[in-house]
Amino acid sequence: MELKNFTEDKNIIEEVAKGSIAEELEIEPGDILLSINDISVKDIIDYKYLVSDDYVVVSIEKKCGDIWEFEIEKDFDEDLGLVFTNPLIDKAKSCRNKCIFCFIDQLPPNMRETLYFKDDDSRLSFLQGNFITLTNMSDEEIDRIIRYRLSPINVSVHTTNPELRIKMLNNKNAGRIYEILKRFKDANLEVNCQIVLVPGVNDGKELERTLEDLSKLYPTVESVAVVPIGITKYREKLQKVEPYNKESANELLDFIFNKQNYFLKELGTRFVFASDEFFAMTHTELPKSNDYEGFPQLENGVGLMKSFEDEILTELKKIKTPINNNKRYILATGTLAYDFIVKMKDKILEKIHGIELTVIPIVNRFFGETITVAGLVTGQDLVAQLSSYDNIDGIIIPRSMMKRDEEIFLDNLTIEDVSKALNIPVISSEVEGKSLIDIIKN
Ligand code: SF4
């Protein structure tokens, strides 16, 4: 994820929402929030917690230096309408681990600086759903999560075996994860967990133990996602680890299906879910939508393909009579999702006639061929591998190939750069059925 502007120490107000309480009180951009109820506001979590009341006392320093104090009566959850220059108010916390599977440690040199930032911040977990390890938190900070009821919180567990976790994260503070999660359970918080699986390290008996431990914390721990380690070609100086292959991924899926059956009986939920990569790698049929139980870990790549398929089928159902479109498009994806996208293409062709859709799996030469997901395909790989195509009306790529807030690939090429180099329009589609079908229909 991208982070920027974490440089200001003061809570400078950047914007005041139209029609808000703050506007009515003549609070202006450039003013500074000093305190709420006499408590200084450390970050956005403090702010959100402190304003959630039907009576608040807000202290503001005006641009001219005057201090204004307001007593405000409002609805409990009504916001004041303030937007701050820095979204977290203070600096985002970086991690103190050196995980054996860390993707950031396996990045090539000379990428944009923000990509090397290792965040591990509970506020980002709460605000944006980032996964955190809880290894850089003091007891006071854990207390704050509990006191403010910051929930749901996404936790990277990997293993509940303290010695193994210390080894995997290369951090002596990593061993107390279960103790902290038990505190969250006592406080009735909601937690989603992930396990990055490294073959021969935290799978097998270790995974069995971790799932058994975490299941004891249900329903505080609502779900556990199991995702495979990603290995790039840039890890010569790092510990040797093995990637998943078809055989080990099949074994893992069998294990997860067995555990799901067990947990269904014991807890009434499948509780643990394998990420889409395991299904794609082994060409295993995707579970039914209901088996994802509301898709609790979609952002983590668990059930993303199934939910995308559902959306595409729903959109196609809306087309009562087949429509014609004589365009020629390329659907560019990572090698992992190739079979799946071909299947979707066949469904689309049943309802949209005349169109030519060619699915091209882009081999990841930038990070190495073991990286197969579409989200890590770069602009230069698109250019190199699509340059022989002509008479194409457009190349459709998933939006996940680009930065969250800008149309820029991981290698800093923009969508225009790629379009110009190929002399073909490049169109990004959100990873949702409606977006893709709308592009193809038009
Ligand atoms: S927690 Fe581990 S995987 Fe995440 S950024 Fe830090 S070192 Fe990398």
Task: Note down, in words, how this protein is organized.
The protein is of the alpha/beta class and 442 residues long. It has three domains: 73 residues, Pdz3 Domain, CATH 2.30.42.10; 199 residues, pyruvate-formate lyase- activating enzyme (Alpha-Beta Horseshoe); 134 residues, 3-Layer(aba) Sandwich (Rossmann fold), CATH 3.40.50. It is globular, with a radius of gyration of 24 Å. A five-stranded parallel beta sheet has the order 7-8-9-10-11. Strands 3-2-4-5 form a four-stranded antiparallel beta sheet, covered by helices on one side. Strands 15-13-16-17 form a four-stranded parallel beta sheet, sandwiched between helices. The relative contact order is 0.07. Helix 12 packs parallel to helix 13. The two termini are 32 Å apart. The protein has 14 helices and 17 strands. Helix 4 links the parallel strand 7 and strand 8. The longest helix is centred in the middle third of the chain and has 22 residues. The protein binds iron/sulfur cluster. The site of iron/sulfur cluster has 9 residues, from loops. InterPro entries: Aldolase_TIM, DUF512, PDZ_6, PDZ_sf, Put_radical_SAM-like_N, rSAM_sf. This is Putative radical SAM enzyme, TIGR03279 family.
Summarize it:
It comes from Tissierella praeacuta DSM 18095. By secondary structure, the chain is an alpha/beta fold. Helix content is 32%, strand content 18%.
Q: Just name the CATH architecture of the largest domain.
A: Alpha-Beta Horseshoe
Helix percentage: 25-40%
Spell out the CATH superfamily of the largest domain. Answer: pyruvate-formate lyase- activating enzyme
The overall pLDDT average reads 92
Q: Structural class from helices and strands? A: alpha/beta
Number of helices: 14
- Give the number of DSSP strands: 17
Number of domains: 3
CATH structural fold name of the largest domain: pyruvate-formate lyase- activating enzyme
The largest sheet, given as strand count, sense and whether it forms a barrel, is:
5 strands, parallel
The small-molecule ligands in this entry are: iron/sulfur cluster
Low-pLDDT regions: 1-8
Which CATH class of the largest domain applies here? Answer: Alpha Beta
Radius of gyration: 24 Å
Q: Looking across the biggest beta sheet, what order are the strands in?
A: 7-8-9-10-11
Gap from first CA to last CA: 32 Å
How much of the polypeptide forms β-strand, as a percent range? Answer: 15-25%
Shape: globular
Protein name: Putative radical SAM enzyme, TIGR03279 family
Pfam families: DUF512, PDZ_6, Radical_SAM_2
